[in-house]
Design goal:
The chain has 9 helices and 7 strands. A 7-stranded mixed beta sheet has the order 1-7-6-2-5-3-4, with helices on both faces. Helix 1 packs antiparallel against helix 2, helix 2 packs across helix 4 and helix 7 packs across helix 9. It is globular. The chain is an alpha/beta fold. The protein has one domain: 3-Layer(aba) Sandwich (Glycerol-3-phosphate (1)-acyltransferase), CATH 3.40.1130. Helix content is about 45%, strand content about 15%.
Amino acid sequence: MIRIVRSFLSVFLFLYFGVGALYVRFCVFPFQKNKSDSYKTLQNSWIFFIKLIQKLKIIKLEINNLDKIKNIKNSIIVSTHPSFIDIVVLMSIIPNSTCFVAERLSKNLLLKDIVKLLFIVNNQSVDDMIKETSKKFDENLNLIIFPMGIRHRKNEYPKIRRGTSLIASKTGRNIVMLNLETSYDFLQINQPFYDIGSEPVIYSIDYLGKIVTEDYKKQYPDDVTFRTEVTKQITKTLYNHKK
């Protein structure tokens, strides 16, 4: 019975999210004067959404070093990726953040205007992607990246891609590393969105450290070596502490 009730709540929350996106798109964004206001609106809406799913006992957040995480500024943020809602959770906590999104979302009726205004569509050439990313940093935003590219479980270690190190090399921004974990599989790949278990999932977030890009550039002036070493460090930090 508990699972049925929780499944019903999950369906309700996904519908609520969709209606909320429509409201923001048509009733809020058209009347805002600048991107800064739009980012604040988006974050506030996601803060409310995350508080709602906590209130309904769908998830329970456990955040270590909360002040340090909340005060990340103008950096590249890399994280493990256990759940479908990871980006919503992170953007509800860390102000002024953006991320890469799939091209299909830029054509989605509910999300396309939000995506085009506030996010980076992942369908560009490398040069255009770097230019767009640099613009976001010039707007004093953080860029959140899941460098393995796919959702994964605690005991899975997908290969870390080199895109993060490329962005760090070209923009000079530091890299902050976070660990996200769930107490059980929650909104995983091929898992129905209504299959959320019979008890709140404990969703833990930890600050793992920072890569100072300038220091790595001094140590590894060759760009290929820089990208290799940065990728190694990201892999070591995100994965090795769990093995």
